[in-house]
């Protein structure tokens, strides 16, 4: 009988992936698992197999493929809609992705650093002026991530908090289909209006430039552009916000590491520490979904064309053959490539932006509020169990 997927996390060890993945990594690193709709895609838990799978062009992220392993009803519901490029067949995915990459280079994202610093400082000023304890997610992590992605895309900040609530419904593993459909309708409407406004008068913003360069000359349709910006908003704030929150939890639970982090001055050391936090937490804890276009052999298993594949990044990032003592947070660990932002073709588009934000957030937060601490025992933090991104519903902190 197949193992079921996903496995529940042990809330007593909120930062660790479910222990079952470690068992599978040892005993059956590429094995079929049973998901909510009764289908049995292959689950990959080892780092080497995960890298191989994510880099293999025969395994693709096409949501419309009949064999695609949708890990939730919400994921399946999206199939009936116009999908953003990341979930489309190769031939449509590649050209649309190429339209964006030059906008997200490290150099261009670095130019946003002063604005990100201002946004972080303003949120901390507001926190320090208000009462405590405070919910760090609502008062800091979500607003900062949302404001930054709005600024980078060139979207009005005012609409964004409402859009976030809608995108959480879409990212939920348990939301009823009707709720997901309603949320998708509202999101679609907003992003269509954003594109239409820019078609009439393209702004000097990322959205405006993509509209001027791709939509107006007829290389990208308006609905495709709307789906693209919706993905950028969704992927561009959720993982970052929850990584801010879980990164803070990880550092507060490891005071020796936090002291080390505070003492760091060398930018390379700081960026290695951020990578270790990303590895340790791995907020994208729902498996990356792929379908085999041809027969593929992975980890000694024969995967047939049309079968689904799930790549469990959180398990691969705790693979002891790559990261000695993988369950230890060690900010001075010898750097090894981790998979927190994916690998291969679908590697995170916003990687450079995310790394700058994480650095600014953790450095500034612990410098400006040196006594920051959890306001409740870690067991009382309401960690999310039912969403694709790992995080806390609320994160009560004080200082
Ligand atoms: C800590 C923050 C972040 C984490 C942990 C993260 C993680 C990931 C991961 C794991 C993937 C790979 C998906 C796959 O292989 O199926 C991905 C893809 C993506 N990310 Fe991020 N991400 C973060 C921040 C951002 C930001 C700030 C943006 C801003 C635009 C962004 C935009 C995207 C997009 C558009 C994709 C799809 C890429 C493709 O399929 O080609 N992400 N991200």
Automatic annotation (TrEMBL):
A single GO molecular-function term is: monooxygenase activity
Concerning CDD domains, the annotation shows: CYP105-like (cd11030)
- Do you know which Gene3D superfamilies this protein is assigned to? Cytochrome P450
Q: Which InterPro entries match?
A: Cyt_P450, Cyt_P450_B, Cyt_P450_sf
Keyword list, A-Z: Heme, Iron, Metal-binding, Monooxygenase, Oxidoreductase
Record family assignment: Belongs to the cytochrome P450 family.
Protein name, as recorded: Cytochrome P450
**Species lineage, top-down?**
Bacteria, Pseudomonadati, Myxococcota, Myxococcia, Myxococcales
């Amino acid at each position: 009988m197949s193992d079921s997927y996903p496995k529940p996390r042990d809330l007593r060890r909120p930062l660790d992936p479910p222990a079952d993945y470690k068992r599978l990594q040892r005993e059956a690193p590429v094995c079929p698992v049973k998901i909510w709709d009764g289908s049995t895609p292959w689950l990959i838990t080892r780092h080497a197999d995960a890298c191989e799978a994510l880099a293999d062009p025969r395994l693709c992220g096409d949501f419309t493929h009949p064999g695609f392993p949708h890990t939730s009803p919400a994921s399946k519901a999206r199939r009936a809609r116009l999908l953003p490029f990341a979930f489309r067949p190769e031939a449509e995915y590649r050209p649309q992705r190429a339209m964006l990459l030059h906008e997200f280079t490290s150099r261009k994202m670095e130019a946003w650093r002063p604005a990100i610093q201002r946004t972080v400082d303003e949120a901390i000023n507001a926190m320090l002026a208000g009462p405590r304890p405070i919910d760090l997610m609502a008062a800091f992590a979500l607003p900062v991530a949302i404001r930054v992605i709005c600024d980078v895309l060139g979207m009005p900040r005012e609409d964004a908090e409402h859009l976030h609530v809608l995108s959480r419904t879409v990212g939920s593993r348990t939301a009823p289909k009707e709720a997901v459909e309603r949320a998708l309708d509202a999101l679609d409407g907003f992003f269509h209006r954003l594109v239409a406004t820019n078609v009439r008068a393209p702004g000097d913003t990322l959205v405006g430039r993509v509209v001027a360069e791709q939509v107006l000359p007829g290389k990208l349709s308006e609905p495709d552009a709307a789906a693209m910006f919706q993905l950028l908003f969704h992927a561009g704030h959720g993982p970052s916000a929850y990584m801010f929150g879980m990164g803070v939890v990880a550092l507060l639970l490891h005071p020796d590491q936090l002291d080390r982090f505070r003492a760091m001055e060398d930018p390379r050391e700081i960026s290695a520490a951020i990578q270790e936090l990303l590895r340790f937490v791995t907020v994208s804890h729902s498996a990356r979904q792929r379908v085999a276009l041809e027969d593929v052999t992975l980890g000694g298993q024969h995967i047939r064309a049309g079968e689904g594949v799930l790549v469990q990044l959180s398990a691969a990032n705790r693979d002891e053959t790559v990261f000695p003592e993988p369950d230890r947070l060690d900010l001075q660990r010898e750097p090894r490539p981790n998979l927190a932002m994916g690998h291969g073709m679908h590697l995170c588009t916003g990687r450079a932006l995310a790394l700058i934000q994480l650095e600014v957030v953790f450095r500034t937060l612990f410098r400006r509020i040196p006594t920051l601490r959890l306001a409740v025992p870690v067991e009382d933090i309401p960690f999310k169990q039912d969403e694709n991104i790992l995080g806390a519903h609320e994160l009560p902190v004080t200082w």
